[in-house]
Write a structure and sequence with these properties.
Layout: E1 13-18, H1 22-25, H2 27-38, E2 42-46, H3 52-55, E3 56-57, H4 63-68, E4 72-73, E5 77-79, H5 86-103, H6 111-117, E6 118-119, H7 121-130, H8 133-140, H9 144-156, E7 159-164, H10 166-169, H11 174-187, E8 197-200, H12 207-212, H13 221-231, H14 243-252, E9 255-256, E10 272-277, E11 282-283, E12 286-287, E13 303-306, H15 308-313, E14 321-326, E15 335-343, E16 350-354, E17 379-385
Parallel strand pairs: 1-2, 1-7, 2-5, 6-9, 7-8, 10-16, 13-15
Antiparallel strand pairs: 3-4, 10-17, 11-12, 13-16, 14-15, 14-17
Helix pairs in contact: 5-8, 5-9, 5-11
Amino acid sequence: MGLAGEGFSMSEQTRHRFGLNPASNHPRMMTELEKASKRGCKIISVNPLREPGLVRFIRPKNLWATLLHRPTSIFSLYLQPLVGGDMALIKGMMKVLLEWDAQEAGGVLDQAFIRDHTRGFAACVRDLEHTTWPHIESGSGLSRAQITQAAERYRNAERVIACWGMGLTQQKHAVATLQTLTNWMLLGGHLGRPGAGLCPVRGHSNVQGDRTMGITVNPKPDFLAALGREFRFRPPSRPGYDTVRAIQAMAAGKAHFLVHPLPDLRPVPDQLRLTTIRSHDQYNTTIYGLNDRYRGIRGRRRVVFLHPEDMRTRGLEAGARVDLIGVAQDGLSRCAEDFEAVPYDLPRGCAGAYFPETNVLIPIHSYADHSITPTSKLILIRLQPAVNSPR
């Protein structure tokens, strides 16, 4: 499944991208995706927002394509789940593969790989059998037919790469989602195989910064004690693995299927699921300009992207000014003031807005289980007419 990275190319694959927008966030990756698509790689995008830069791409160094405006259609399938609906989608694909394997008496799953290199498969099967299609469809916001399309691409691929970004990691159930994603890859034996595997997409490695922050296989006891005091947790004191020992440990052990129930994300009337995004003229929280060319935004940033039907039911016209009100269990009032409502192609019940303008909506206690990552990609909000709008 696809390719990513300088000097790294493959063919006859399927590549799934979850929760990242390389057109804005990883532009060099887009060039490699374009090359892969032209070689026949099937690339699937999973993103609540339909990003123009992902649907049709023009490489700036391609003079004729730029002058004649001839973009490349990169993705063979573009799925738009609900914000927070990724795990339900992944489980749906796994359920389809399991059903096909049972109907055909094997041959769909890599049974030899599962037998020789994994543990916990039986528990995974039981979990999928008890996960119903109505629960999967309501949790993902996608139909069974759409999920089956994605599973078909996976089944037909000789090699699969699963890439993901902060769209998956910055949710309450992020770790469970990524472990479920790993289960999905194990079904086809797509770990430890050349040209296949898991690919978390990040920015610069910044190794020196890692060391300064204490990211090392054997941190000093004084540092661990200070880290624990500052962030109120007990860091592990046992040394970790360096690169060589990590590979040796993986070769000697087996991968575990880790089972998680689908999160309960049933919609509440008048609430929206907000995901934070960045603009094209932005790197992390550094803002270089006020334009976002792919999404058609010029000269402004305080905008909230909404489904047209969600705007209609709230009596909002394009350009209406609204305040974003955070909905949290602690009952505290959190408000991001004076945003312009912009109609956009994303699922009903969802919204998108730029960070850091919306960081104020995230409670300090709202973070992913186990990884303690802020839930910037799944924030419950409601809208109200802007109180202090200068317009």
